[in-house]
Amino acid sequence: TEAHIEAVEAADALNAYIAKTPEMALEMADKADAKIKAGEQTGMTGIPVGIKDLFATKGVHTQACSHILDGFKPEYESTVSQKLWDDGAVMLGKLNMDEFAMGSSNETSYYGPVKNPWRRGDTDTVPGGSSGGSVASVAGFAAMGATASDTGGSIRQPASFTGTFGFKPTYGRCSRYGMVAFASSLDQAGTITRTVRDGAIMMESIAGFDAKDSTSVDLPVPNFEAALTGDIRGMKIGIPQEYHLAGMPGEIEALWHQGIEWMKAAGAEIVDINLPHTKYALPTYYIVAPAEASSNLARYDGVRYGLRETVQGGGLVDMYEATRAAGFGDEVKRRIMIGTYVLSAGYYDAYYLKAQKVRQLIANDFKRAFEKVDAILTPTAPSAAFAPGEKSDDPIAMYLNDVFTVPASLAGLPGSSVPAGLDANGLPLGLQILGKPWDEETVFKVSGVME
Ligand code: GLN
After folding, report:
1. 254 and 322 share a domain?
2. C-alpha angle 201/178/176, rounded to 5°?
3. What's the angle, vertex CA 320, arms to CA 319 and CA 322, rounded to 5?
4. Which of 52, 66, 154 maximizes ligand 1 atoms within 8 Å of its Cβ, making it the mutation to test the pocket?
5. Residue 52 appears among annotated catalytic residues
6. How far is CA 377 from the centre of its chain?
7. What is the CA 399 to chain-centroid distance, rounded?
8. Measured from the CB, is residue 101 less than 6 Å from ligand 1?
9. Is 403 domain-assigned?
10. Which of 7, 24, 123, 163 is the least buried, fewest Cβ under 10 Å from its Cβ?
11. Do both 376 and 245 map to the same domain?
């Protein structure tokens, strides 16, 4: 823990931590020592981790990196972080992220962008998003693991950009209690670690039923680490033909091909599959997610939490308007406007209802494919880490980065991103493994072979 507290300081230039908790960390480390002496050690005992700013941590900065939650320190702990502390893990601090987890480059945070420890020659690169602080802290050796959340790819895409292992479980596997809500039917907690084994240990710690989240599912949590047998002989791995995008960089195709070769060498059978509704996944996601966000973010009214901007001589509505105008960043405002539009009476059937139907078709595609295969292998993202500012003025270009991660989010499936190679500039690239609902073990097993 002491070494990590120093490492957090040394990694300051990354801007991964927006709040540091060294005193708490030392106290928690003492408790972990006592646990170890008493022979009560479990998987995460004494392991220093960072917590994405989206998870409520009692008495500690929790703002989902938004200005509108200024000064908010919750009275309660999120279930995911509580499970880590019950296991004896140690909190190093709160991690930077895109505001309300909306973004793919960590450039929308109120606390400024995060730097990727991996650089393209002399040029900085973005760490991906929204879990940019989580991946930068782990890749930069300033945490052994980090919590993260994935609504449309926010665990897998940044893991790909930083050569870390990202794991998003099945929707409902982890409790959302105490997670700042973005799009509730998609949001799912997960982990960023440097190895697959670390990911299995940390995931096992945070998973499990919680009566405080009505969408958490009451199923036993398997021993994920035990799934890492290295044996995938006879397993069927699906390759979705629709993921061969026109104009995709040759090195991404080559990486995917390399992954296929690794699977074959390990004794798995490669099966071509079709996910015909893939091309509708991005537009569907960018209707459903903003719709839910516009509803979830209605609670930030200047009365209940954080920032309040009043207007001289003005009334309540003026206060609402001034607070929301000052408190939300551009991307968040864009999502609220899109969401409000697609939910409005005149457009509900044309956009929101249609998107819900297409979402079901996308889920059905996966269901049919999983009748034939045990897991699916794809690239995680269509590019390596890009330069700051490269896409921040063009929302569509930014949204396109989620093309391979969003379909599984809409279907609620478990998935990982495994570091799989480097591009021509020496930047990391990840491959994505997707599994059947509740079959995280297969995702871990296949990930372990690729590592
Ligand atoms: N990049 C996607 C978005 O901006 C996904 C974000 C996420 O998974 N939280 O919505």
Report:
1. no
2. 60
3. 65
4. 154
5. yes
6. 19
7. 15
8. yes
9. no
10. 123
11. yes
Question: What is the domain count for the chain?
Answer: 2
| Domain extent at residue 318 | 282-350
| Domain match, 238 and 290 both | no
Q: Which of 66, 104, 154, 216 is catalytic?
A: 154
106 lines ligand 1 (CB under 6 A): no
Report the separation in Å between the CA atom of 140 and the middle of ligand 1, taken as the mean of its atom positions: 22
ipTM confidence = 0.97
Convert the pLDDT of each residue in 51-67 to its tens digit. Answer: 999 999 999 999 999 99
Counted residue by residue, the chain has a size of 451
Q: Which two tokens stand for residue 226?
A: 């035990």
Candidate list 52, 168, 391, 436, residue with the active-site label: 52
Question: Which of helix, strand or coil describes residue 415?
Answer: strand
292 lines ligand 1 (CB under 6 A): no
Residue 304 gets which letter from DSSP? S
Beta strands in 145-214 (DSSP E): 145-150, 165-168, 188-193
Does residue 113 sit in the same domain as residue 208?
Answer: yes
214 is annotated as an active-site residue? no
Atom of ligand 1 nearest to the CA of 289: 10
Per-run averaged pLDDT (10 residues), the chain, 451 residues: 98 98 98 97 97 98 98 97 98 98 98 98 96 98 98 98 98 98 98 98 98 97 97 98 92 97 98 98 97 98 94 96 98 98 94 97 98 98 96 90 97 98 96 98 97 86
Is the CB of residue 153 below 6 angstroms from any atom belonging to ligand 1?
A: yes
> Which residues are 270's β-sheet partners?
237
The answer to whether 154 is a known catalytic residue is yes
Q: Is residue 404 part of a domain?
A: no
Distance from residue 153's CA to the centre of ligand 1 (Å):
6
Which residue's entry shows tokens 């998973």? Answer: 207
* Closest approach atom of ligand 1 to CA 186: 8
Candidates 402, 404, 413: which one to mutate for ligand 1, based on the most atoms within 8 Å of Cβ?
A: 402
CA 103 to chain centroid, in Å, comes to 11
Q: What is the per-residue pLDDT across 398-449, written as a single tens digit (0 to 9) for each? A: 999 999 999 999 999 999 999 999 999 999 999 999 999 999 999 999 999 9
Q: Are residues 151 and 64 in the same domain?
A: yes
User: Can you give the pTM of this predicted structure?
Assistant: 0.97
